[in-house]
Design brief:
This protein is an all-alpha fold. Helix content is 66%, strand content 0%. It has helices spanning 24-31, 41-66, 70-87, 90-103, 116-147. Mean pLDDT is 91; it is low at 1-12.
């Protein structure tokens, strides 16, 4: 890539605007692993693998909520937070971190929250939010990969 194709933070200015839910610098690093810009087979497989993983994890989160299992919500939030961070999906990552904290019976600032009912309510609300955020980035990325 020519130096003129990069901006001050080092990412490719030829990239489409993927919105504020995706960290373009992190996502660009995934794209750099492709053999060619015309064939994004490697990055596409990673992203579409994440889609499958996220859907499965959301189902498990729904079940954990039904069972009122905060420990499982903590574990699943942590798991999906890491996967989404790897792709630069910042809003999904941030919401998963909230679920992780609430599942650990903590407030967002890390202080203990002994009220399990409150933690479950917060997990329920945040899960709705993260599913909507996920749907947005899923559509954005599917559009991106269909246009490359």
């Amino acid at each position: 890539m020519a130096a003129s194709d990069q901006n001050d933070d080092g990412h490719d200015t030829n990239m489409p605007d993927l919105g504020d839910a995706i960290d373009i610098v992190t996502f660009s690093q995934i794209l750099e692993m492709d053999d060619s810009e015309d064939d994004r087979e490697f990055s596409k497989s990673i992203v579409f693998g994440f889609f499958e993983q996220a859907e499965e994890t959301f189902e498990k989160m729904d079940a954990a909520l039904e069972a009122q299992n905060l420990e499982e919500l903590y574990r699943l939030g942590h798991f999906l937070k890491g996967s989404s961070a790897t792709l630069g999906l910042t809003k999904v990552k941030d919401s998963c971190e909230k679920i992780q904290r609430y599942g650990k019976k903590e407030n967002l600032d890390g202080t203990p929250e002994p009220d399990e009912t409150l933690c479950l309510t917060r997990c329920t609300e945040t899960l709705k939010t993260v599913k909507a955020e996920y749907a947005d980035v899923e559509q954005t990325l599917k559009t991106f990969f269909n246009s490359t």
